[in-house]
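Standup, Tuesday
Yesterday: got the pipeline producing structure tokens again.
Today: sanity-check two examples.
Blockers: none.

Example 1:
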Amino acid sequence: MRILLTNDDGIYAPGLKALRKELLELGSVTVVAPATEQSAAGHSVTLLTPLLVNEVFEDDGKTFIGWAVEGRPADCVKLALLELLPDPPDVIISGLNAGSNAGINVLYSGTVAAAIEGAFYRRTAIAVSLEYDQKIYDFPTAAKYSRQVIEQILARNPPQGSLFNVNIPVLERGPVKGVKVLPQNVSPYTEKFDRRVNPRGRTYFWTSPEFTCPDPHPDTDVTALDESYITVTPLQFDLTDHARLEQLKKWEWKVE
């Protein structure tokens, strides 16, 4: 099996390193990932600056890992599929992200965006993220769980272009209770900004790391993560509201 591995935390992120080690049990792994952290980059792509690419090797300086790209996660997948890889991958894995990508985080996530880009190109794509509590991460254990879930998804031979979002709960909270397949939570999150003034009297803001969902919908990815379940959510990138589309077709439209 040929596996393309990418992320949004950067090619040297510990989550990617841990997941690569696990994925090598499934097949050959080529990494094409951002040279620097691109968290919350969403599905942005680079248009106005060149995409610089460097080969990356293991610590021994001999074992080729893949390429570091001076760009966004979606750039990495585009370059991998169109320019860098000699053969197309059987599956595209994005992660292991530091922080969950459940609920509306899906809309901001560079991790999920990289997987979506892979699905655009009719590849099976899986985004994998680890929820954190006070910045504590057990990447090796989370990577093991991720590999097990990925194996089970691929064993079902999903159609090309299938897209999955996998989240691993905080492992320090207790043992994982199992896997739940649930929809994405779409209830609002609480967001804050830290307002400050610089020495020249200019007001500026820091985005607060407190990004919580105080009232999530029941039986969604957010609630299951809180209950220590691994969540799997099939996604699609067609944003058309098909029910409303049929309503709008019945309207009488006028222009003058």
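Example 2:
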Amino acid sequence: MTPAADAIWGTHEIGVRTSFVQDGRTRHDSDSVDATVTPTPSEVRAPYLTTATTTEQPQYAQNGDQFAIWAGGQDLSGWKDEKAAVYLADAAPPSGTVTARVVGQTGSGPSAKAGIAVANDLTAPEAGGYAVLTMSAQFGLEFLTDSDGDGKLDTWAGGGSSYHPAWLKLVRDGTAYTAYASSDGTAWQQVATATVPSASGTGDAGLVASAVNLNYPDQITTALFDSFSTHE
């Protein structure tokens, strides 16, 4: 069975009902099986854009409100900024919220990261306003910001246990950024608040992934998202 091109990624129950004649009587039977629809690399559609800072060639896919990123990258932290992103330009207001749900991530090592990022310009983090909130594969949340406007993520907060799906939310009020996380999108845990002095005006907002593969050379992480929104 071949799923429709726009079939929702995930597990679907397929049911089968049959009717047959046995010993002169019509009988009925039914059964079901789970089938999983997985994304394959394709493209993202306008107004969404992509950008990457990895040596490995990233790949992307979009299916309505679902997104997939296949990314390499040694790390996404202060010493390395290697990631792939799907983003919206000029979508993060000076005071507003960016929210996404990370359905899951597979491949690479336990430090692989997937989540959300904002910046004055996500193609050039050194332009300021840079902050990232991710859920790692096994080491919990990471909220990283650029405190001095040089494009390097030099502050950190987070930890705890990883869980997927994970709702992630960044709330910006001028130069103050507050990170939240939730397992259900209703009950939110505050991760931390940080000041990003270089944040200015309306910025970019997007979904990011990094394999954090320094100790797992050439491995790729696959990150799946099924919700992404920005609003004032």
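Quick observation on example 2: Residues 49-231 form a domain with the Jelly Rolls fold (CATH 2.60.120.200). The longest strand covers residues 10-22.
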